[in-house]
Amino acid sequence: MNSDLSPAGISQPAPRSAPGNAVRNQHRWLTLVVLSLAQLMDILDSTIVNIALPSAQHDLGFPADYRQWVLTGYALAFGSLLLLGGRLSDYFGRKRLFLVGVGGFAVASAVGGAAGNFATLLAARIGQGAFAAMLAPAALSLLSITFADDAKERGRAFGIFGAISGAGGAVGLLLGGVLTQGLSWRWCLYVNLIIAAIAFVGGLVLLRDGDRPQRVRLDVAGTAAVVFGLIGIVFGLGTAERNGWHDIRTLGPVLAGVALIAAFVVIERRTAHPLLPLRVILDRVRGAAYLTLGITGTGMFAVFLFLTFYLANTLGFSPLQTGVAFLPMIGLVMAGAVFSGAVLLPRWGPRPIVPLGCLLAATGMVVLTGIDADSSYAGNILPALLVTGAGFGFIFGSVQNSATSGVQPHDAGVASALVTTAQQIGGSIGTAVFSSLTTSAIAGYLAAHPGTGTLAEATFAGYHLVFWIAAAVFLGSALLAALLFRSGPLPLPADPAA
Q1: 427 alpha carbon, distance to own chain's centre
Q2: pLDDT per residue as tens digits for the range 51-62
Q3: Cα Rg for the chain, rounded, in angstroms?
Q4: Do residues 43 and 169 lie in contact, with contact meaning Cβ atoms separated by under 8 Å?
Q5: Do residues 294 and 425 touch, judged by C-beta distance below 8 A?
Q6: What's the rounded Cα separation, in Å, for the pair 3 and 404?
Q7: pLDDT tens digits for 279-325?
Q8: Res 363 pLDDT > 90
Q9: Measured between alpha carbons, how far is 177 from 184 in angstroms, rounded to an integer?
Q10: What average pLDDT score do residues 86-95 get?
Q11: pLDDT band for position 186 (cuts 50, 70, 90)
């Protein structure tokens, strides 16, 4: 048997003695590098602009309350269009959508870096999100079919890919600090041109798509329902901190979005060619993976967002120092993801690994509930980052593999899109909920201590509440993962029993 692609698009294993086997494996790992670079570009752009925003605001002269839309514009386009991007990659080819996504992302980044006003910057960020929605599911589904025939290699590959996903947000903070402080905020966007150029050339040369299923009519009704539903939810949550949870400007879009998502489920049950075949999410292992990603995504943003505030505002860290402070966590995320994916997951499956990762993350959150004005980075922050980083590595290295396990080739794109959708929507919910809780906690503390409570004390009360709730979120996720995941190794995509 040779190592060519079968008609189903699944790489067939060659005998160990085959002379071409080493070349095939070498190309696999080079393919992983290309796909990981694209994933890094997607994930770090969710946070790299955070640190650059004050400089961009000063340079372009837009009001402070416009800043959130530079972040929300990306999240709106990215989160709402992911399922469509996943299905398009199944219909028109994963390699083709990958290259279109990388090229479009680079163009949008160039426009944003050269922006002379707020409108251009916002349009560029929306464009980045739209092309990221094509790129992300195509990359993950290409990874799934590239490593479809060997559980050990698949586990190692998904461990590395999961490490990139888990650490990408922190890498964005580090890179944003370096570029903003050393060059200009514009380089937080221009840097994507370098990454995209390498990913595009590598993808053009190395990626192998496999045969595509027969094209069928696109599910227009389902697409419209899920796109506008996710836009409503993300948009409404993005306004919660400013308008409050009881304001119609918050509740209206969120409730409309939830209603449209419910309508989407009904449509998918009845249409002949659904955008999201319900068999993808009703599988026990994949369903558990999507749910775990969504829940842990809410807690993960508590680390990046509020710990960044603490390092900058309380400890007085510069943007560069803030980014460097997250490096130990990045290292543990990567080490934990690779170790769990390559060593633990092929032997034990996700059931013991994901709950352990969630428990480690919860422990890190509990440690952070003790921070105050007299805390130090080495004594209080670093231990929490190390424990949390190891936990994130265990979670992402296993869950991303689980989310595409046993899926049929013609569903690989949409199954992969759901991974990033769950993470993005979870992160949006986490950002909105925790920001709102912090604001309420600060106001409540000052009201309970009239004339005696300081703003600094009230701020710490808000931080402590957020980290306690994040710990509870991770504990709940650990329980759900332990109950929902099956015991034993994951099925391979090529496994007919899957």
Answers
A1: 8
A2: 777 778 788 887
A3: 22
A4: yes
A5: yes
A6: 22
A7: 877 778 888 888 888 888 888 766 777 887 788 788 888 777 877 88
A8: yes
A9: 10
A10: 77
A11: confident
CA–CA gap between residue 393 and residue 133 (Å, rounded):
24
Q: How many CB atoms lie within 10 A of CB 373?
A: 11
Alpha carbon distances (Å) from 118 to 125, 410, 441: 11, 41, 32
Contact of 422 with 83, CB cutoff 8 Å? no
Q: What's the confidence (pLDDT) of residue 474? A: 92
pLDDT digits (tens, 9 = 90+) for 115-137: 888 889 889 989 998 898 888 87
CB 467 within 8 A of CB 430: no
Handedness of CA 332, 336, 338, 339 (dihedral sign): positive
Instruction: Report the C-alpha gap between 258 and 280 in whole angstroms.
Output: 20
Q: What is the pLDDT of residue 10?
A: 35
3-state secondary structure the chain: CCCCECCCCCECCCCCCCCCHHHHHHHHHHHHHHHHHHHHHHHHCCCHHHHHHHHHHHHHCCCHHHHHHHHHHHHHHHHHHHHHHHHHHHHHCHHHHHHHHHHHHHHHHHHHHCCCCHHHHHHHHHHHHHHHHHHHHHHHHHHHHHCCCCHHHHHHHHHHHHHHHHHHHHHHHHHHHHHHHHCCCCHHHHHHHHHHHHHHHHHHHHCCCCCCCCCCCCCHHHHHHHHHHHHHHHHHHHCHHHHCCCCHHHHHHHHHHHHHHHHHHHHHHHCCCCCCCHHHHHCHHHHHHHHHHHHHHHHHHHHHHHHHHHHHHCCCCCHHHHHHHCHHHHHHHHHHHHHHHHHHHHHHCHHHHHHHHHHHHHHHHHHHCCCCCCCCHHHHHHHHHHHHHHHHHHHHHHHHHHHCCCCCHHHHHHHHHHHHHHHHHHHHHHHHHHHHHHHHHHHHHHHHCCCCCCHHHHHHHHHHHHHHHHHHHHHHHHHHHHHHCCCCCCCCCCCCCC
Percent of the chain clearing pLDDT 70 (strictly above): 84
202 touches 30 (CB < 8 A) = yes
Instruction: Please give the share of the chain, as a percent, with pLDDT higher than 90.
Output: 9
Report the C-alpha gap between 43 and 242 in whole angstroms. 25
Q: What is the residue whose two structure tokens read 């069928």? A: 216
Residues in the chain, total: 498
